[in-house]
Amino acid sequence: MSAPQEVETGARLMPAFHKSEVLPAVAQDAETGEILMLGYVNDEALRLTLETGKATYFSRSRQKLWIKGETSGHVQRVEEVLTDCDQDAFIFKVRQEGAACHVGYRSCFYRRAPLNSSKTLEHVGGHKVFNPEDVYDSTEK
User: Considering only CA atoms, which of 74, 89, 82, 84 is closest in space to residue 40?
Assistant: First the structure.
């Protein structure tokens, strides 16, 4: 099997870190299908996620690994990891404890951009699950 064919249809995990040092990972509620957040993984974060079952991401702003919930207690227990055909994006199907969003909402996707306007957002995500000021100091966001 040729290399592109192995990546696209083969049985070997071959993440495309040669394209980028970090790849996107969408956290999705394993039960409801709700999209909770978008994070990024490098090779080590993906390896740790697969080994431990705890969603581990790479923070592009802080340039370090972080385990979801290590500060807040709002952990993501990974039940399944899916990759796309190019192996350059992932879906983590998770059991979310508490909120996924660092500003307090269950999902980071709590606003919508209406199709009739390019400059406004509408709140669609319910109420906050927690107060971030009670959980994080300003360097952890």
Answer: 89
Q: Which residues of 46-57 are buried (b: 16+ CB within 10 A; e: fewer)?
A: bebbeeeebbbb
Instruction: Return the biggest CA–CA distance within the chain.
Output: 54
CA distances from residue 71 to 20, 23, 67, 103 in whole angstroms, order as listed: 28, 23, 9, 13
For the stretch 18-73, pLDDT in tens is: 999 999 999 999 999 999 999 999 999 999 999 999 999 999 999 999 999 999 99
CB atoms within 10 A of CB 92: 26
pTM: 0.92
What whole-number distance in Å separates Cα of residue 100 and Cα of residue 129? 9
**Residues with Cβ within 8 Å of residue 136, at least 6 apart in sequence:** 71, 72, 102
